[in-house]
Specification:
The protein is mainly alpha-helical. Helix content is 54%, strand content 8%. It is built from 14 helices and 5 strands. Helix 9 links the parallel strand 4 and strand 5.
Length: 320
């Protein structure tokens, strides 16, 4: 029995942080043996926010290095750059012609922009259609998403159903793969870790960057000998990701001061990151290998989508 297809994309819009790893990437690594896994670098999507040639190119390269260093295996999965599959943009146009403006106005990202008094670009408005194309062109069974991202899958399903109704059965209806066990990683200020909040700990941070981030975590005025509930502390919520031993937890209830706790956390994070940092540096230095991985992934992805797009063009009436 063939494996189900899992698809996920990552935007090359900046430096990964530990929230990205514990919230998603770790699960991709764990699932790459269970599913026919396809991970793409969503550079088309990134252009809605990154409109700087050098920055975008560097981000694309960096994200590939990050994923390889974290354990995604190009021999097990299809890892590719979205823009190397122009059929995705072609399919987006076909879907555009079936989708109404009022329907797209329901999209959360679009509504948030408008609510904040900003003028969204056509690219942002059309973002859900491009995402549906990414998913449906691969015939994905499942797409890993958080609870707050289920709308993306709903859009893809609605568009697939409409196409199937108009042109005949063509696309599989994808299902969201909700990771109930995924950690919501708090940032250094207690809110969800996010680049937009500026509260992150970079995934491949230097020891100095780790120290700066950890020392910025706010604490209350309780002294060293006062009992603390670790579940109420951002410091512990981050610490248990790297060292979840009973001794660490017990320390907070048995006189562990905040200064000592932060120093322990810095040491534990650095011990975890150091080998990843070293591995990533080796990968990034081998540019030919990294570009070769992308080219190999693009060849695989193109082979996958060519048959699907031939079917789509034929059903629409473009093949004479």
């Amino acid at each position: 029995m063939s494996k189900k297809i899992l698809l996920s994309g990552v935007q090359p819009t900046g430096t990964l942080h530990i929230g990205n790893y514990f919230g998603a990437i770790r699960q991709f690594v764990d699932l790459q043996d269970k599913y026919d896994t396809r991970i793409f670098i969503a550079d088309f999507h990134a252009i809605t926010t990154v409109q700087d040639k050098e920055l975008l190119s560097r981000n694309i390269y960096d994200i590939v290095c990050d994923y390889l260093a974290l354990g995604l295996d190009p021999e097990k999965i299809v890892l590719f750059q979205q823009s190397k599959i122009p059929e995705v943009a072609e399919l987006t146009w076909y879907f555009n012609c079936l989708t109404t403006v009022p329907y797209l106005e329901r999209a959360h990202a679009y509504k948030d922009k408008v609510a904040n008094g900003k003028e969204p670009s056509v690219g942002l408005f059309d973002y859900p259609i491009l995402m549906a194309s990414d998913i449906l062109i691969q015939d994905a069974h499942v797409v890993p998403v958080g609870q707050d991202q289920k709308q993306h899958i709903e859009f893809a399903r609605d568009i697939a159903e409409k196409f199937n109704r108009v042109y005949g059965e063509t696309f599989r209806l994808p299902e969201p793969l909700i990771m109930d066990t995924v950690a919501i990683v708090p940032g250094t200020d207690g809110r969800k870790m996010s680049k937009s909040y500026g509260n992150t700990i970079p995934l491949f941070a230097t020891e100095e960057e780790i120290k700066k981030a950890v020392m910025s975590i706010p604490t209350d005025s309780r002294g060293k000998d006062e009992v603390k509930n670790p579940d109420d502390l951002v410091l512990y919520q981050i610490h248990k990701l790297f060292n979840d031993t009973p001794e660490i937890r017990a320390g907070y209830t048995q006189g562990l001061g905040y200064k000592d706790a932060k120093e322990m956390l810095i040491a534990d994070i650095n011990a975890w990151i150091a080998p990843l940092r070293e591995k990533r540096a080796e990968i990034a230095a081998d540019r030919n290998m990294v570009l070769g991985v992308l080219e190999y992934g693009a060849q695989q992805a193109r082979t996958i989508v060519e048959e699907k797009m031939k079917e789509v063009r034929e059903k629409i009436g473009l093949i004479l």
